[in-house]
Predict the structure.
Amino acid sequence: MDAFSQIQTWSRNRFVAAFLALVCLEPALSAPLTRWLRHRRWFSDWEAVVCAGRALHLGQNPYSEHLACPGLDPAAFVYMPQIARAFAPVTGWLGVEGARWLGLAVILPATAYLIWYVLVRRFAHLPLSARLMGFAAVRGSTLSTANVGFAMQALAVWASLTLRKARWPFVAAVIAGALIKPIFLANLLVLLVEDRPIADRLKAFGVSAFAGLAAVAVMMVTAGPLLHDWMTMLHQVVLTEQPGVGFAKLATFVGLNNSGAPALILYAVLSAALVAAAMAIAEWGELAADERVFLGLGLAQLINPRINDYDLYLLMPALALAALALRRRAPVMFRRMSWLYVAVAVGNVLAVTIPVKALNHVPGTYAGACALVLTSAVALALPHRAALQRQVSQTLAAMPGWRRAS
């Protein structure tokens, strides 16, 4: 029996269902509960933005290791200098506490919205039990730190609901997020998995990616003298101290320098394979239009070399969709991938809860997720090899530049 059916069978008993729900939600709830019981400070990620704005308002360097803000307990500020510049006058007008609550008034509802989308919104082929299993892999630090990235993910999700009518709100939301974290451009993967003709998808993706990269380039050029300090802080925190559970951890695990040429080449190849896999699953997985969008939003997180907790909120249900897409097409492989999905979720929990340092260095979450996505794509694509070859030929023939070159 596959893992999803097994969970649903167990869940017919109310007591067992309640126990399973508690087990799945405990990792997400434990951090906020612990912080509350131990009277620890909340919202450190947003406080980093507030503190950086205050520092610039006072003429200080927001990337200083010795930066201090009375009344705040900020995390390291790793965003572009323009973000600090934007909040410098806000902290001057409202003060530190006022700026803190202004941001929380946006971030907390956005957090609630994203959780609603993942757990409550109905999807035809994505049962609640599968989504709850995904939550077992998610720690609650994002909920207690008010992570800005979580709010930007919520904005992209909200804008994705308009894709059937217009693409520009979604593209605008993704580019806005990329101005804070450039890797958010990976969310444009959604444009490649929409339920539209392939040529139309490629064109929309190409134009949007160009606009996004141009916007990020403008931010880099206009960053000013703080650009070097930002890059130094980014490398220290993002790639060294907190590499997350994505490709950066895999590269470190196999002994590669995250910023070296071999790692970058491997990252490019693997990312291209994952994009192709997402398109294959969307094309042949018999997913509804809104599920294709969810799949794109989730699998886009695998392109992020530094996967964080707030990325898992979208990634884990998307992995469930990738496995469930096999149910009719490849039932034997479906059973295997369903249990791999459970293994990824449970393994991530064990890696962060068991006090064994060696486990924290094993890229099990990322490796398992990539294996699930790539295997599902291959299983779905194999029966369509001839059709795939025809589709590639027709798409290339429709490109004027390709016709001239040939």
In short: Residues 3-392 form one domain.
